[in-house]
Amino acid sequence: xxxxxxxxxxxxSGLMGTGIAHAFVSSGFTTTLVDMSxxxxxxxxxxxxxxxxxxxxxxKLQESDAQAAKSRLSICENLAxxxxxxxxxxxxxxxxxxxxxxxxxxxxxxxxSQAILATNTSALSVTEIASSLAEPxxxxxxxxFNPVHKMKLVELVLGIATDExxxxxxxxxxxxxxxTSILVNEAxxxxxxxxxxxxxxxxxxxxQEGTASAEDIDTALRMxxxxxxxxxxxxxxxxxxxRLSVLKYLHATLGEKFRPCPLIIKMVAAGRLGRKVGxxxxxxxxQGQRIPGxxxxxxNL
Length: 301
What we know:
The chain is an alpha/beta fold. It is built from eleven helices and eight strands. The longest helix is centred in the N-terminal third of the chain and has 20 residues, at 38-57.
C-alpha cells in the first residue's frame, strides 16, 4: 500500500506536469516539481496554488487543507537535486525519445531500486524509453489526462519488460490520488491518444475544407456526442505542436490514415500553438479564456 510518507517527483512543469504535481500534493504527498526554467516553475507553482484557492472558494476544500497541500510542494531546477528517497518519479518532458531516456536514466541513478519510474508519454514507446536501464522492469507509462484535476483516467502502459510488481504499485498510486487506471499493452498512440489524434486531425481537415466553422465543429461534438470539449478546443489546450508530433509518429508507425492535416503544419509553422501562446484555432485573453467569435473559419485560412 502507498502511505503518505512516500515522496513523489514530477519532472517537467508544463500543463501536464503542473496538473500531476497538484494531484499528488492535494492527495497528501510531498512532491518535488522539477524544471530547468525558473520562470516555468514559478508559473506552475502559482497555477497549483490557484487551483487550490479555487477549491476553497467553491467550498470543495477547507482553507487549512489548501494550505497544507501548498506546503507539500517544492520546486527544483536540477534533476540531480531531487530527494533520493522518493518512491515515484513521473516525467512529463517533451515528446522526444532522447530527452525522456535521459531523464529516466539519470533518475534511475539517483532513486532507490524500489522506486517506480513513470513516463507520461502519449505516444512514444515505453520499451524504448526504458531500454538504456539495467532494470527496465521499473518503468511504466502513466498517461494522465488534461486537465488533471478534473479528469479521472490514467492509462497504465506496459513496456515489454514492465513487471507485475511495478504494475501493482502504479495501480496503488492511482488509487491513492483518486484516479481510475486501465492497463494498455504498448502500442502507438495507446488507446485514447490514438482515437483523440484521429478525431482532432479529422476536425482540422473539415475546418480546412470549409465544412463548418471551428465553433460549429466543436459544438457538434459537445452537443451531439456529449463530449466535454470539442476536438479543436482540445487541440488548443494540448498544443498543436504536441498534436503534430503525435500525428507524425502515428503516421510513421500506423500508416496513411494518420497523415497530419496541412492546416496543423501551417499553424505550428506560424507559431499558433494554442492556448499556451494565446492563439491557436481560437484566440485567448491574458487569463487564458477563449475570446468569443475568434475561431477560424474556412474563409480565413
